[in-house]
Design a protein that fits this description.
- This protein is an alpha/beta fold.
- About 30% of the residues lie in helices and about 20% in strands.
- Among the domains are: about 380-585, Rossmann fold (3-Layer(aba) Sandwich); about 600-660, Immunoglobulin-like.
- Strands 10, 11, 12, 13, 14, 15, 16, 17, 18, 19 and 20 form an 11-stranded mixed sheet that branches. A 9-stranded parallel sheet has the order 5-4-3-2-1-9-8-7-6.
- Helix 5 runs parallel beside helix 8 and helix 8 (about 200-225) runs antiparallel to helix 13.
- It starts with a strand and ends with a strand.
- The structure holds alpha-D-galactopyranose.
- Alpha-D-galactopyranose binds near residues 142, 261, 291 and 297.
Length: about 650
C-alpha cells in the first residue's frame, strides 16, 4: 500500500524543500507526485529545458525513502506555446478559443500541441526514464477537453470515413433521410452541438475517445522508448465521467488511477464502492486513488470539511475495493493561483494543518497492513456490466429525465453492497466465465456480437439479470429491428411489448420470495413471454390500464447447463429491488455476509488463498459486528490483537483481519 500526496516544489524556495519532505516522511508518506502542470518550469522557452530542479526534488524524496511518480505536464502548456501557436488552443462549441491560464486549454486534436507535448515528455523520459527512484508516470491530468475547431471537425470526418468506408453506409446506419440529413460527402458532416442525430452523437463520443487514445499513445511511446527499468504508466481518471470510453483509454495503460472527491456532503460507501469497482474493472486489476481531498475541496457549492475520522474510513474503503495507493491532493497550496482555499496537509505558514494528524494516522495504519495486502485483490462471483455506449444513448434520449443510468446502476449495486457481496464492474465484452451472476443494468446499446458473447455464457450455465431499457439499440444507436431485449430475446424467453415512462407509480406484486409487494417508478416495461418455459415472477397491479395485470418480471431457463435469464421490466422501489437482488443471488447459488447498517465487510485475496478481511464502520454510531466464521482466530492488524467472534467498532472504526 502506498500512501502519499501531490507536491509542487516549484512554488517554494529550495531551502524549504527538505523540511517539507521530512514532514511528509513523518506522516508516513511512501510516494509523491511531482511535475504535473509544471511545463513552464520545465521548458521556460521553446526547446530550453530545466530538469535539474526535478532531479534535486527526487533526490530529497529518495533520501527520506519516498518514491516519485512523475506527472507529464501537458495539461498546462506554457504561454509561449499558446501565444506563438494559437492553433494549440481548444475551441468551444460556440467557436471561441480558450484563453491561456486555466489549464486544459489546449486541444488534443492540434498537431502542434501534440508535437510539443510529445517533445517535452521525451525530454523528461530521457532524463528520468531509467531512474529507479521514479517508479512510474502519470500522463497528463483528467482527460476531458473536447475541441470544436475546424481541425477537429476534419479529423472527425476522417474518423467516420475509416469507420464507415462509404458515405452510403453511414447514411443507412444513421437513417439520414430523416429530416433530410443525407450526406453526399464526408466534408458535410458536422460536429454535434447539443441534441443531434443519435448515430452522429455516439460516433462523436467515439471520436473523442480516439483523440485521447492517440494523445496518450504519443506520450506512452515517448516514455516507453526511453524507459527500461520497469516504470509503469497510468493516468488519473474521474469516476463516472462519461466524456470518453475509458475502457479504450485504459487498454494502453499499466493500471488506472482515479481522483476521488466528495465536494459537498459526506462519503457514501454504497456509491463510492461502485466507483472503486468500476475502476478495478477497467483493467480487471487493482488501481490507485491518485488524488483525494485532505478534508475539503475549493470548487463545490459548499466545501464542507469531512468529519474527523471520515477520511480514514475512506482510505480503508478504497483499499478494501482494490486500491493499492491513496494520495492526497495536495501537500501545500500555492500562495496564488486558482486553488488557494483547497484542503492541503500544510497551511500557508508551512506548518501542519489539523488534518495532517489524521493523514499521519492513515500513513502509519497503512504500514501495518501493507505486507498482508501484497498481491491481493478482490475476487467477485458477480459482475455488473457497464457500457459507455449505453450511457451515451440513454443520456441523449432519457425519455424520463429521472432515468439516470448511473443511478440505475447504483440501484442494482446497493443491495449487493449492503449484503457485502463483492462485485466486478466490467465491460459487456469482458470474459464472463469467472462469474456465477451477471447483471446488465440498462444495457441499452447491445451489438449482436456482445449479445452472442453473453448468450454463450448463459448457455454454459450463467445466471443473467436483464433490466429496463436493455437491448434497445444497435452499435450505431439505431433501434434494433426486433423488440427489446433485441438479440437477447431468445435467451431471455421474453420480449418487451411496450415501454412506459412513468408519471404515476405502478404497484408490483412479486412471487420470487413468497409474496413481495412494492412499486415501480420512473420506468415500466410490459413483458410478453415467448416460450412455454418462461415463468412470470412479478405482475403489475392496476395503474395506467396498459400494464394492469401484466407480467413485470420473468425467469427463463436456457441451455442444458442450468443457465437462467431473469428479466425485470420496472425500476423498482428500494425495498422490492433489494428482495429481487437477493432472490437473483440465490438463483445463482450465491449469498452475502450479514452486517449491521453502514458496516462493510470486504475481502481481498491472493492467488494462494491468503485472505484479508476489512470490517469498516462508515457510520457515526458505534456498532457491534459478528464476524464471518472464516475470520475466527485471526488478528486485527491495526490493533494487533486476536479478534473475538463479535467485535465492537466505534464510529468510523476499522479492523483489518488476517492470519499472521
Ligand atoms: C482535480 C485535479 C487536481 C486539483 C483537484 C482539486 O481533480 O486533478 O489538480 O485541481 O481537482 O480538487
Amino acid at each position: 500500500m502506498h500512501f502519499g500526496n501531490a507536491w509542487y516544489p516549484e512554488h517554494w524556495p529550495e531551502e524549504r524543500w527538505e523540511h517539507d519532505v521530512k514532514l511528509m516522511r513523518e506522516a508516513g508518506t511512501t510516494v509523491c507526485r511531482l511535475a504535473e502542470f509544471a511545463w513552464s518550469s520545465i521548458e521556460p522557452t521553446d526547446g530550453c529545458y530545466e530538469l535539474e530542479w526535478i532531479d534535486r526534488a527526487i533526490t530529497l524524496l529518495n533520501k527520506y525513502g519516498i518514491a516519485t511518480v512523475l506527472g507529464t505536464p501537458t495539461a498546462a502548456p506554457p504561454a509561449w506555446v499558446t501565444y506563438y501557436h494559437p492553433d494549440t488552443l481548444a475551441v468551444d462549441p460556440t467557436g471561441r478559443p480558450a484563453s491561456h491560464g486555466n489549464r486544459c486549454h489546449a486541444s488534443a486534436n492540434s498537431p502542434t500541441y501534440l508535437k510539443y507535448s510529445r517533445r517535452v515528455v521525451e525530454h523528461m523520459a530521457r532524463r528520468f526514464g531509467n531512474d529507479t527512484r521514479v517508479i512510474g508516470w502519470q500522463i497528463d491530468n483528467e482527460y476531458h477537453r473536447v475541441d470544436y475547431s475546424d481541425t477537429a471537425k476534419r479529423q472527425f470526418q476522417h474518423f467516420l470515413k475509416d469507420r464507415f468506408v462509404t458515405i452510403d453506409k453511414l447514411n443507412e446506419h444513421w437513417s439520414t433521410r430523416y429530416w433530410s440529413q443525407t450526406y453526399d460527402f464526408w466534408e458535410q458532416i458536422p460536429i454535434p452541438v447539443g441534441a443531434h442525430n443519435p448515430g452522429l452523437m455516439l460516433a462523436f463520443r467515439q471520436f473523442v475517445t480516439f483523440t485521447w487514445q492517440e494523445f496518450q499513445r504519443h506520450q506512452i511511446e515517448a516514455i516507453r522508448n526511453n524507459s527500461h527499468c520497469g516504470q509503469w504508466i497510468t493516468t488519473n481518471l474521474m469516476g463516472w465521467f462519461d466524456g470518453l470510453d475509458t475502457y479504450k483509454v485504459a487498454k494502453d495503460l499499466d493500471f488506472v488511477s482515479w481522483d476521488w472527491y466528495i465536494g459537498t456532503g459526506h462519503h457514501n460507501y454504497l456509491n463510492t464502492g461502485l466507483i472503486h469497482d468500476l475502476n478495478r474493472g477497467f483493467k480487471q486489476k487493482n488501481f490507485w486513488v491518485m488524488e483525494t481531498q485532505p478534508g475539503t475541496v475549493n470548487w463545490s457549492p459548499n466545501n464542507n470539511f469531512l468529519n474527523k475520522g471520515e477520511a480514514r474510513v475512506m482510505a480503508f474503503h478504497a483499499a478494501a475495493h482494490g486500491a493499492d495507493a491513496f494520495l492526497y491532493w495536495q501537500w501545500r497550496s500555492a500562495p496564488g493561483g486558482q486553488e488557494q482555499l483547497h484542503g492541503s496537509l500544510l497551511g500557508a505558514d508551512g506548518n501542519p494543518r489539523p488534518f495532517y494528524e489524521e493523514a499521519s494516522q492513515i500513513g502509519s495504519d497503512f504500514k501495518r497492513v501493507s505486507e498482508a495486502l501484497k498481491d491481493t485483490t478482490v475476487k467477485a462471483d458477480v459482475a455488473i456490466l457497464h457500457s459507455y455506449e449505453a450511457r451515451w444513448a440513454i443520456n441523449a434520449q432519457r425519455h424520463n429525465s429521472e432515468f439516470d443510468p448511473v443511478q440505475y446502476m447504483e440501484q442494482c449495486y446497493h443491495p449487493l453492497a449492503r449484503h457485502n457481496v463483492s462485485v466486478d464492474v466490467i465491460s459487456p465484452n469482458a470474459p464472463l466465465e469467472d462469474y456465477s451472476l451477471v447483471v446488465a443494468p440498462a444495457l441499452n446499446v447491445l451489438p449482436d456480437d456482445t449479445a452472442a458473447h453473453i448468450t454463450a455464457w448463459v448457455q454454459a450455465g450463467g445466471v443473467l439479470l436483464l433490466t429496463p431499457r436493455t437491448g434497445h439499440k444497435d452499435e450505431y444507436d439505431a433501434l434494433h429491428s426486433t423488440l427489446q431485449p433485441g438479440p437477447l430475446r431468445e435467451v431471455a424467453g421474453v420480449e418487451v411489448q411496450e415501454y412506459y415512462s412513468l408519471y404515476d407509480r405502478v404497484p408490483v406484486e412479486a412471487s420470487w420470495d413468497g409474496t413481495s409487494c412494492g412499486e415501480g417508478l420512473i420506468w415500466a416495461e410490459l413483458l410478453r413471454p415467448l416460450s412455454a418455459s418462461t415463468r412470470v415472477v412479478a405482475m403489475y397491479g392496476a395503474s395506467n390500464g396498459w400494464l394492469d395485470g401484466k407480467p413485470a418480471a420473468t425467469i427463463h431457463p436456457f441451455g442444458e447447463a442450468g443457465g437462467k435469464v431473469i428479466v425485470v421490466g420496472a425500476w423498482l422501489d428500494e425495498r422490492l429491488q433489494e428482495s429481487l437482488m437477493l432472490w437473483v443471488l440465490a438463483e445463482a447459488g450465491l449469498s452475502g455476509i450479514e452486517s449491521p447498517p453502514e458496516v462493510e465487510i470486504t475481502v481481498r485475496q491472493a492467488e494462494d488463498g491468503r485472505k484479508v478481511t476489512f470490517v469498516i464502520n462508515h457510520g457515526r454510531e458505534a456498532r457491534s459486528v459478528t464476524l464471518p466464521a472464516s475470520t475466527a482466530g485471526q488478528r486485527d492488524l491495526l490493533s494487533d490483537s486476536i479478534v473475538p467472534a463479535t467485535i465492537s467498532l466505534p464510529a468510523y472504526g476499522v479492523a483489518v483481519l488476517a492470519n499472521t
